[in-house]
Amino acid sequence: MTFPEIDKSTPHAARIWNYWMGGKDNYAPDRAAGDAVAGIYPEIVIMARESRRFLSRVVRHLAAEAGMRQFLDIGTGLPTMENTHEVAQRAAPESKIVYVDNDPLVLAHARALLVNTTPEGVTTYVHGDYHEPAQIVADAANVLNLTRPVVVMFMGVLGYAEDLDEVRSIVRTVMDAVPSGSHLVLWDGTNTNPASVASAEKLPENGGAPYYLRGPGELASCFEGLELLDPGMVPITQWPTEVDAGSGKVIPIDAYGAVGRKP
User: Fold this and answer.
1) Residue-wise over 232-258: b if at least 16 C-beta within 10 A, else e?
2) CA distance 16 to 25
3) Backbone angles phi, psi at 141, to 5 degrees
4) How far is CA 172 from CA 28, 122, 137, in A?
5) Is the pLDDT of residue 245 over 80?
6) What's the mean per-residue pLDDT of the chain?
7) In the beta sheet, which residues pair with residue 190?
8) InterPro entries from the xrefs (predicted)?
9) Which of 18, 28, 27, 26 has its CA nearest to residue 51?
10) pLDDT score recorded for residue 131
11) Are 76 and 59 contacting, i.e. CB atoms less than 8 angstroms apart?
12) Strands 151-155 and 70-74
């Protein structure tokens, strides 16, 4: 496999997110952009870490309780703790996971992602862009059995598409390709706080790609035709409702998510 050259001079979403998560796979421009956003909206660091907890809870539920064995994680980002394959294969050793991302740095780290946690499972990586969902489906079909239910995941990435109709089309294209019993997992940052909106505007000012925040209702529209699992479209710290052990309160957050089942 030939790896694309990594551009270290321009901030990239996966590396900025890695920085907020406390990782080391980032460069000075990524840290500068990350600091600019966090300077206006410090809660972005909490959001990054809580998004990983949301992923872990959802994947564990779908693998252990809902019997799901195939996962398509689109826009996965850099490897970190509690990756999708680790959570899924811990609950169901035979789980198959296909990761998708378009960042050369993520591609360069694919070898780490491709290490199964169980001999029965399958973990692989597709270099692709969610703006080309039909191609992602075609590539995923080389690993996943698309006649069997699949968990389709868009975890904090759909804000890179400016138009909501395009977002809905991307999601619909992938969900149309998977059968009844499949699930959609989606979360994203929201425009529910003026500070979060202002912080998103800092990304392009500091060389990052623009990120378009939406309201919870707009995110919920991506689940049209699906059956939302309880508790529906809620802040990700409330799926399911989980009390913070330190404060005794649910952590408020400007990031909403939901899980829907295809009937």
Assistant:
1) ebbbbbbbeeeeeeeeeeebebbbbbb
2) 9
3) -65, -15
4) 37, 25, 12
5) no
6) 90
7) 214
8) SAM-dependent_MTases_sf, SAM_dep_MeTrfase_SAV2177_type
9) 18
10) 95
11) no
12) parallel
| 93 Cα distance to chain centroid | 22
Give the predicted TM-score (pTM) of the model.
0.92
Rg of the chain (C-alpha set): 17
Phi, psi of 120, rounded to the nearest 5 degrees: -80, -25
Residue pair 98/144 in contact by the 8 Å Cβ criterion: yes
Q: What is the pLDDT of residues 165-183, one digit of tens each?
A: 999 999 999 999 999 999 9
Bridge partners, 126 (sequence order): 100
Q: How deeply is 56 buried, as exposed, middle or buried, from its count of CB atoms within 10 A (0-12, 13-18, 19+)?
A: middle
pLDDT at 2: 55
| Cis, bond preceding 210 (omega within 30 deg of 0) | no
In order of their start, the domains of the chain are: 13-261 (3.40.50.150)
Which stretch of 111-120, 138-147, 226-235 has the lowest confidence by average pLDDT? 111-120
